[in-house]
Amino acid sequence: MINVFQPTLGADELDAIAEVFASNWLGHGPRTKAFEEQFAAHLGVDPGHVLFINSATSGLFLAAELLGLGPGDDVVMPSASFVAAGNAVASTGARPVFCDVDERTMNPTAAHIEQALTPDTKAVLVLHYGGLPGEIAAIAQLCRERGIQLIEDAACAVSSSVDGTACGTFGDVAMWSFDAMKVLVTGDGGMLYVRDTELALRAKRLAYHGLEQSSGFTAAKVSHRWWELNVKDFGRRIVGNDLTAAIGLVQLARLPELITRRRTNSELYDQLLTDTHGVLLPPQTPKGHTSSHYFYWIQLDPTIRDHVAADLLKEGIYTTFRYPPLHKIPAYGPGHPELPGTEKSSENTLLLPQHPGLDTNDIHTIATALHTSIKHHTTPTHN
Fold it and tell me: How far is it, in rounded angstroms, from Cα 159 to Cα 169?
């Protein structure tokens, strides 16, 4: 099976895990701190504002708490987003207000965001679809002008930027995902960025039971009764650990090569599919933007999209679609407006395999199978 997503791991990651075993310190420790520091350098931010956590989903829920979202608040967000974002907002009692997206980029424009703002809008939550930054600079400017908090779900955008500014650092809070299928992999895990210094300190407390001092061993150096607790917030335990951080350190060092391979895959797909009748390729990345190339998506006639996916699966090629529209999910309530870009793209978009484990032969195989299927479903005799 040619998988749509797949991690790229090797001997260096195994060696890093062995070193953690040998150190006999598996929990939140020196490798976690090193990972935070090196990821902060990758972003170009102060490491005191960065926290390694157990998942980007935990980061979304923590962001909602940090910003004080609750009943009576509206949060504008694209309907074309992962369900974790909707859950994080709705769980606070705040109301997700879903906006549309550009049907080609799958990202909301600043105009889409502005049209969805209400008098009760307290925050905007955006996703960088497939690693494309989208109009994040304009959206951030809009939020600043309106006094609205901006959350960036940068799960797909670990190496995405606009004019040298890393995606995730435009807003007030951001999170990246390092789960088993992402660009940078730690198995499970994520990174949180908080712009405000005091909120960043509170995030660290909330991520470890609300404790002012997260380590009794560290406290022993400054207190004669280091086992006593100093609880400042009612938190939980969502911090990362040295096992996953050790993998993350290796993956972060390999990130340039992983992104290069993904970009090469995208370029080969473009070359092989550019003249395929009825296929729209992903939009070109605008000047000054860099993408993490997490997704490679095509858009087809909606009447054949699902048939093509089924044909490819029979050939051992797994494809998928992300993300089903959140405004169609009953749990988020009725009364959402029509979102034509979101709805159209949800019916015509298909994600092809995209990961560094693909070789040239794999992509040629995928392209050939795609050509064959589309031709079969669009010939007059078939119709």
Answer: 12
